[in-house]
Every structure is written in C-alpha cells, then in structure tokens.
Structure prediction request, 360 residues.
Amino acid sequence: MSTTALNDLSRYPIVQAPMAGGASCPELVGAVCEAGALGFLAGGYKTAGGLYQEIKQVRGLTTRPFGVNLFLPGTGRPADPAAVEVYRHQLAGETTWYDTPLGETDDSRDDAYDAKLAILLEDPVPVVSFTFGCPAPEVLASFARAGTYTIVTATSVEEALAAQHAGAAAVCVQGTEAGGHQGTFRDDPADDDAHGTGLLALLTQVRESVPLPLVAAGGIMRGAQIAAVLAAGADAAQLGTAFLPCPESGAHRLHKAALTDPLFTRTALTRAFTGRLARGLVNRFLHEHGPYAPAAYPEIHHLTAPLRKAAAATGDAQGMALWAGQGHRLARDLPAGQLVGVLAAELDTALAQQAHRSTS
Prediction:
C-alpha cells in the first residue's frame, strides 16, 4: 500500500461512505473518526445551512479529519415532463394506500451546490468528495488552495481520467456492487442494461490508467475484502452498507433490520424511487414500479418523497427505499467504533496471511 496524503487522513485505510438521506449523521461520522477511520457527512438533499450545522456538530464530536460529500448538479437534458406525468399516474394507487399526496417535481435541480461550495471554501473541512460528476478545474484548485483534499467518484476509466485532468487529489472507484446511487457522470437510460462494472475489474483498469490515490467502493463488508482491494491497487476502501446498522447511524430501524432479514433476498438497480439508478433491496415498491420509472432525477426523488416518508411512518418497509450493496447479508449490528476495530483486526489478519503465503 502506497503512502499518500489520503492515508495520512486516518489511522486505518477505511472510509465510511457518505449516505444521503440521513444515515451519515454527525454521530456516525464522529464515532468513525474517533475510532481511526475517515467518516463522511452526506451533503445531498440538505440545505446549505443544514449542512453547516452538521459540520459544526461533527467538529464538536471529533478533532480528527472528516469529509463532506456533495452532489454535482445535473448537466444533461432536463427530464421529459410527459414521462414524469405518466409515472405520476402510475403511482396513484400508492397515494391512496398511504393516504398522502405525491411531492412537487419543480424543486431545485442543483441541490444548493453553489451555496454549499461557498460554505466549504469559507470554512474548509479536511476532505470534500463529489458524486454525479466532476467539478470544474477552478473549483478543485480553490479547494487545493484552501488545504482541502478532494475526491471524485468515478464508475469508469473515462470518468477517472476526467477527474485526474480536472485536478482531483484522488478518485473513489465505485463498482456496481455498491448500494445507493451509482455515481455516474452521465445518467443515460441507454446504459441501464449494461449493469455497470464490478469493483475488482474496474479498480484494476483504473489503477493501470490513473496515477492518483484510489478509494475502492462497492460491496465491501469485511476486513479481508479491504485487503483484497488494497492488493488490487486501492489506497483505501469505502464502506457504506456495513455502517448502516450501527446504533449511531441515522438510518431508519426498518432499513437496518431489512439488511439481514431473509425476506429480502437480493438487491437490484432501480430508478423507482429517485429517477436515477440506485441499488436497493428488492421490495414491493421497487418490484412494481421499477420497470416503469423514467430517467428523471431529481424529479422522481421529490415525487416519491412523501410516499417513502409515509411508508416509514407506518412501519411498511415494502414502500421504503432500502438502499443496500450486494454484501448486505454480511451486515453486523455493532457500534461504529467497534466495527472499525473489527474491520481493522480482520484487515491485519488478512495482510499477515498474504505475507505468509508470499514467503512460503
């Protein structure tokens, strides 16, 4: 494993993934950082003021480095209003079932990106990562001048190269196994049938093409898997689903329980909840509406938000967005600090076994 500025940010090469929607709350981030890993706040779906308050909370919980993740605003074609309207009618039965109206779809498409940039440049945090695209070179240069380490999420060699050329300090290589949204730069429904590239294949391709430090993400739940991605060229491993069940996590209790519930047998990529491809546990909502959901992010996110909230309030996991990676059955209900320690111990054991095999 090479020594980089990335490795200097935490004791262990373990990154807690930023999970938008409440899971990556200050309590989780603080506990992860205090245990020697790198915790991340998720800036997505928050107001700029709300994000700033969470940053202040994390600073009150730990003095160690932490990160903030931002969603890049969409640069592609706006969603087809007719397709959104068709999906609205498709969801009519859900509004009756949950006795709640659908959300408005004309909310802001930029997720307050510029306002969040301004906050993070005025009062810098140690690390900022980006999802759904690559920031302009001048933005990355501004963060470098502020002393902030920048990471861009990539799902292909082409995206990783674009991040390098724009001036990112590191790349987060996201395999298709990852839970939640696929961090693709371009959201093209024509690519849906390709199902993405698995982490080890993608990581090797990126490692041979891009000289930057790499963070590997997608389906990682055990220390031995962290050792595997380090051996394949990563400098650190990012885990999201593994941290969801932690008591410090802000995920809903039904979401936590579903990860290891035998009722949920598999995950799938879907646009059903947000209009953008994301991996979640297959439940009734995903099964019934996934085939008809248009590529319309964030319109569909706003449209279904009241339904998802109502499902959670009534205790119905079949109507919730149960984001999870392919390794969800390996989830462990442990405090975040203890989980970091267990992962680190498993990593040490795996590295020792690798060393023994190489000398025997």
In short: Residues 336-359 form the longest helix (24 residues).
